[in-house]
Amino acid sequence: MPRTKPAPTRIDPFALGRARVEAYFSSRGWCPFRFQEECWDAYLAGRSGLVHAPTGSGKTWSVFGGPAIEGISDFKLPGVESTTAVTSRRNREIENRKSSAPLTLLWLTPMRALANDTAHNLDRFCKALALNWSVELRTSDTTQTVRKKQRERLPSLLVTTPESLSMLLSYEDAYAKLSTIRCVVVDEWHELLSTKRGTQTELGLTRLRAWNPAIRTWGLSATLGNLEEAGRVLVPGHSIDRVHSANRASDSDPRPAGEATTGTLALSSSFLTPHPSFLTIHSNIEKTLHFHTVYPTTLERFPWAGHIGGRMAENVGKVIRDGGSTLVFTNTRAQAEIWFRQLMRQCPDLIGQIAIHHGSLDRKLRNAVEDLLRAGKIKAVVCTSSLDLGVDFAAVDQVIQVGSPKGIARLMQRAGRSGHRPGEPSHLYCVPTHAFELIEFSAAREGIQLKTVESRRPIMKPLDVLVQHVITLSAGGGFDVDALYDEVIRSHAFKDLTRQEWSWVIDFVTRGGPTLTAYDRFQKIKRDELTGRWTIANDRLARLHRLGIGTIVGDGTITLVHGHKKLGTVEEGFIGKMKPGDVFTFAGQALELLSLRQMVAKVRPNKKKTATIVSWPGAKFPLSTMLSQKVRERLEQATNDLYVDDEMKTVRPILEIQARWSHLPKSSQLLIETMTSREGVHIYFYPFLGRLVHEGLAAVVGHRIGRSTKLPVTATFTDYGIELLIPRQQVIHSRAMLTKRGMVQIKGEALPSNIEERAGFSQQRWRELLSPATLLTDLFECLNAGELARRQFREIARIAGLLVPNTPGSPKSTRQLQASSELFYDVFVEFDPQNLLLEQARREVLEQQLEVKRLSSALEALKDQQIVMTYPERFTPMAFPLWAQRIASQTIRTEAGHDRIERMLEELERAAER
Amino acid sequence: MIESNECSKNSNVRQSGEPLTGFAPTNSGLSSAALQPKKDRSKMELKFGNETFILLADRAMLWPRRKMLIVADTHFGKDALFQARGIPVPNDVTSNDLLRLSALLDLTESRELLVLGDFFHGKESNDAEMTRALHQWRGKHADVTMTIVRGNHDRHAGDPCETLGIDCLNSLRFDDIKFQHAPRDDREMPAEVMSDFDSETDHLICGHLHPATTLTDFDGTVMKVPCFVVDPAQLILPAFGRFTGTCAMEHVAGRQFLIASHGRVLRAPTR
Q1: Residue A261 contacts residue A250 (beta carbons within 8 Å)
Q2: Which of the residue ranges A372-381, A721-730, A841-850 would you say has the lowest mean pLDDT?
Q3: What are A597's strand-pairing partners?
Q4: A46, A357, A365, B15 from A333: Cα distances, Å
Q5: Neighbouring-strand partners of residue A685
Q6: Do A741 and B22 touch (CB under 8 A)?
Q7: Ordered alpha helix ranges (H), A45-137
Q8: Å from A195 to nearest chain B CA?
Q9: Scanning A221, A716, A871, B73, which has the fewest C-beta atoms within 10 Å of its C-beta?
């Protein structure tokens, strides 16, 4: 009998649970992996941890097993728990067997799609283990009836999102409902880590820990360059033990090699550690990855984004036909729409066998597609990152990546979607949409082989998220200002929060701002004179606040409706440009816009007219630093005529054209190409530092040119380089002002002075433009002047509760409260310039958007680079994607909105004077 | 596009110019036009019906014959309403708007002020504190006759305190010129406001829409600027309040956009 079984040091109180889980495993013919058992032991020893395991390696069981064993054992063994009040109620309930256990395990997933599957699986496990746990789901898709039931009683195991956790925290009885939690599992932690949703999760966890310090937190993460930091963010203030289940010690592992050979040994030593600490457990599951590249029959001369795409559809169709079930990943929703349409057009035999899935489609449509795929009723799904995460598709045999992989970790994760069962290999087919992506694939494959994977950095001190959290807590039972400060600084994100910043946050939510600028009539939260606790002022404000909980900020989204059927959402910016009668493609269907009213667009199918592809602005993944470095290495090899693999051999002719027409830069060179067109003077330069750094660099260089010449410069950037366009009219305007300064060099030769239209810059001038000196001052100048901070303020205004969501469901009374974030930004700048949210907008632009640290070190590095200036006759293979990019418009302007209007009005005025 | 005109003109300059080989850091102005004496663009005369009006850059309009200053959509107390609903907006927005209005009244030496509706933003805007501020402001312009033509927001907000001596009406008429809040074709407006209009002979001056027009820059960037919208029989004023949004209006044949922004009143290019 488990209870009487003697043990050397102590009786194992969890023997019953272990036995039952083992019995379940053997009934399925499985045997627990060593890393799973390690997780269970660690959990049962009261520890928290982070499990690093690829998808399809049994990671769900690794974190579910511990709480399940504990839950089963509870039933027979009262008094194991330390929190007696909770336990006694708990056991009474269990003994009465009238209902299931109270909320015990909180399972956070970053995606709603993931939540569905997870809840389904966990419910199955609980039933199989005869564990007296109810399993439920709560996301924004949860129906009102279910939510109402959950308001009365939460299940034992709740699968939910960070937003819904905040929602739960915003109800008055939050403490009673949530303090019974013993364990929080954060699934796909790497996805949340570097986002404000991650910060929201951190704050939620901090609150739960304040209520129950014994709570254990377990994260699940895919491969990351900074797993240890990821662990520190999830459970701050712990010491880290590492356990490698694999018979392989990582480089950073401090333990002697002999000891590292078995995980059990490491674990038993960590058991001796007096303080229960945090574990990073690496699974020993190695997935085999078969990496294939799909080659275009002929390479286009110009690698224009999406240009080759059309022809590649047939090849993709072939891969789908020849293989089993397939996920076709694209990088953007628009790309998914284009590829879906192309596949239908070019492979009509696949019609009915492929479907489309992306974040803008209605939940019901997405569910239907997921079910079809799961049931094996369709062959392929064209999708975006909407299916990146662990939706449990055991059925997927192969994965196709269309377009740039963007990062090594991302590609690995996508590849891992196939061969989902432990031991099965993954099949990855890479489809380049322009020639340079061949280089990226070549580089990414090497990265995967060498296991060099990107890091994701957590966000520090986002005050907007803190403001939201504080209001959430004021609605959820109230708080004490000092106690909450002590609580909040225990989170990783706010560990450096100063008292002053905290006072500002409290002033902001209580009075609208510090004393001097306090807003007379502001009311949001109020102080209870008796208890000194702050609570939300009234129920209306609480309801309004709940509408706005969350940190995901879309462009205003318009709901598409056909008859009474919801099809999905599109951004206001897109549909706003259309007139009734216009046709666009959505979910692979041509839809005609009938009317647009109050955020609802009525549409009907229309196949006659040619359709525009819906464009969704917003998050575009930058090429990771790691990958762009590897791309540079590949180019360097090419300059030495070294083409190491098939991908590089295929792209060779294009690189040779680049070298012939202009120059193929070595890693130690900065190539600057200048050419003219009807548009004006184009200057291309290629630092290869990734989109984010390029945005900052473009802003600074554009600003420096603009400041000294008063020219409106348009800057466009991609992951490889930057285009500066000085429009023709302006060049001509100001040429009288431009004095000659140094000779322009073309590969060592003097540029003939009769090349009039080349607004060339000298080497020296470029050194000035790219100088790291005064970088911050210049950045601040263009931030204050520019639109960047104003744009960034949108997200902050939304999270901090300035923008009231205007969705079809929101009450009519909110209509009077509509104001755009730009308007808020402008009045704050004008009337309350000290507002810390403005400061945050600038900081976010600097740190996250422009990556100022990397930018500054990049400029330092550029100092040592040799500048090579060329004057090609035509757009070179490297320049063309940049040109195309600007046409597709992702540009930054060097002028502030107001300055721009001023100048445009001046132009109008001059025109009027003629 | 705006620049089409300029290109041809400037191509002449290019032929006589020097070759362009480098940029010098200089802060000198862009165009030689800047050196010429400038026409005063802060106001513009407009014939509407049989009357002459002067459009002002600060989103207001003057009727010289009656010495009447006309503004629309002041949305006073919008900041207060947001604050009361838990959304922090700086205090000084409304007081600054009152200062702007005072400055205009003084500058134009108006005897009358007409506000074309949406005087207050909402119920919470029209409170004791606001009334105090208005009394103080009203005192500075004791000899100015003030009238409000009610708008949709005023229905919820109520009229300003009677002791302020501001007349509140649903509409106002001087011969063939009619003043009301909403444009002629607005369906959401109650019938009593919209009645009494002879589309053959009458001229309507209104607000409500917060009109703006768009300007497209050389690189395709579209910027929105507030404007007056003038049809043969209807003149729509831009919103006066600082903390108000704008709505870009469609181009229709016969409709003119007169931009009021950045200290200028300018005719927008027709397309």
Answers
A1: no
A2: A721-730
A3: A600
A4: 43, 9, 15, 48
A5: A672, A722
A6: yes
A7: 59-76, 84-96, 112-128
A8: 25
A9: A871
